[in-house]
Amino acid sequence: MLLRGDIRERALSLRSRLSSCDICPHRCRVNRVEKETGFCGATDEIVVAHVGLHFGEEPPISGTKGSGTIFFARCNARCVYCQNFQISQRADEIPTRTLRPDELAEEMLALQRRGVHNVNLVSPTHVIAQVAESLCIARENGLSIPIVYNTNGYEAVETLRCLEGLIDVYLPDIKYSDDAVAKVYSGVDGYVGINRKAIAEMYRQVGNLAFDPDGIAQRGVLVRHLVLPEDLAGSRASLAFLASLSGEMVVSIMAQYSPQHRAPDMPPLDRRISDAEYERVLDWALELGLDRCFVQDFESSETLLPDFRKANPFES
Question: What is the pTM of this model?
């Protein structure tokens, strides 16, 4: 598969920005090529924590054959309740692999040979300049399945614009509707405006979620929203924003919050959400016209199982 020249040129142009890094909204301006590190702790290397099949994503992503996940070490947020904190915040303490762009491209092609529905880039924001090169190599060597960009949603619009035509499915979080809350619990500045502009750009690029005949996502945006105790996430305002973008927006409303990492010492994040808290968010979604939602059986918040069901089946 040959990429259009403009897509390849835009994707590869990201590399030049690592010498004064402004890839994400932190804009640390460190020289990552010279191994300087900023907020995320990453240099210009591609450090991978895990590559493999994953069956716990939403049904259009995991399907029956699994999603081909690539977990990148480190992150551009520091969520106090992160369930993958060993990978995102303690990567120096776990086994990882450092890959060249061509080696990462081969990992993508190997996942395709295993029959996965997609290549799922998990927390790619801080390394997308390097990963974009791998995507170009993989596409030009036969990668034909969708690329999923699985992100916390703290993204720079100018970086996303360089990915247009390279990413098929955007899978962002919408975590908060209050900047002060985002700063305290995820360590990021200006999250709300940055996140909403990023999701709007993703939607501009790929639109509403589109499926193949088997219900597997081929293109579009699927937004995740994790319900937090005492509505720290500001769920109604976040859902209202998504509804303003499109009444057909597909939203995954997640009940699986559990006090992980530093959260046990930070009330009210020291407890799981209640059934009433979760049901209230579902009611808000329906009230706002967001009826293309994936929701979780509430018991999954106790077991941490990604037990997704459809609030309103798409095929109705």
Answer: 0.94
